């Protein structure tokens, strides 16, 4: 049965919609969903972080200006399309980029400017906590930021009454509730997947570690309460409604779902929260997440452990570099074509060059490239130098040239994934690919399947991203049947009609990628020499 414009209008009037807002690193997006989880209105606001006093940050004024603008554009979109003001919503959810450092005193004042995930100023804290916990604590995690501030002797630490992340802050201001979704909590502090809460033993270890400082607070006094997907996380207060909707149209009392990080909303948006599933996002940077059946045998600095919004353990491999170098080479071919007097359609150029890569030798004919525009922690580089290298015997042709640049875009990622798949024996039934690398049909997908030796699927729509993902979580809280799991809700009610293309790994490609990786690993001293010598 098709849904009419009048049906949507009635859903809006009767509060049968759900709203998701995600604060990404360059855009704040608001997406309103109708009763079948389809977007019916949206609005967005562009913003950029600032580098002030050696810290990447956003001001609180920018947070609220951006939220209000994206909400207002979405509400205006509702009025234009359906002729009614947006006064109530079934449920709301907030998401944002994970990690970072936001601390407040008893009055609710921000003690130091927001330190985002992008800051790499917590190396000592990261190393010390990893040793104490015997658990990898990345630099961007909230606990690393807190401990580094303690190591630095920063005066504000004594006055901390509450520490949270960006979406936790927004949620608190709109509801009065100091809570966080478990997926985001897992990027603040290690989680015990049995208790679905902060790891109790590590909490004790942290309190002991800082006991000599004699602060008036302990860990549990300042960190937000952990909630699972589907749990109620409070309601929009009168003050909160006015803060979000400056026109005053929005009524208070709307329930909110637990605020979640962008990793969690990405898992929801790609329907990859069940065990033995995962997703890989490949664009300017690349990360892969696999939902584990059990804990890893030991800590690896290449692997971050987070959780799904339901509290299942997820291994995450995050790399700084993916398609930037590849795009630069395509840009060079564009310049050449224009110099030859040809008109260039970029979609056609990408498709032609990407497909050409499928004609190359399985191991790229002995060619080697590094796509390091910036440093890459997995291979221990603090800076990057994009490189293309070959021997006189290498088979240097266009197909192999394009193939090696596609392979190397996943080289650092494969280094991390091989730890999971080969050393730890992690099983993957399916990976869901999304992002620019997968835009040309079948190419990035085939290369990715070779890299991980597992099936890779791509959705036709690729969803609406994180804002849609958090709206779906709000919908799950509002509409789930009693004891209905999030896995079932997503599979049966959200993605049931989704068109998915699945590609299995080609044995020859898998063998070729492994051969390339030997060359990639052996050639890392070349990259090191370039970083050291090319200034």
UniProtKB/TrEMBL annotation:
The keyword Transferase applies. One of its GO terms (molecular function) is kinase activity. GO terms for biological process: carbohydrate metabolic process. Residues 279-477 form the Carbohydrate kinase FGGY C-terminal domain. Keywords: Kinase, Transferase. It comes from the Bacteria. Pfam families: FGGY_C, FGGY_N. InterPro entries: ATPase_NBD (IPR043129), FGGY_C (IPR018485), FGGY_Carb_Kinase (IPR050406), FGGY_N (IPR018484). Residues 18-244 form the Carbohydrate kinase FGGY N-terminal domain. PANTHER family: SUGAR KINASE (PTHR43095), XYLULOSE KINASE (PTHR43095:SF5). Belongs to the FGGY kinase family. This is ATPase. It comes from Clostridium folliculivorans. The lineage of its organism: Bacteria, Bacillati, Bacillota, Clostridia, Eubacteriales.
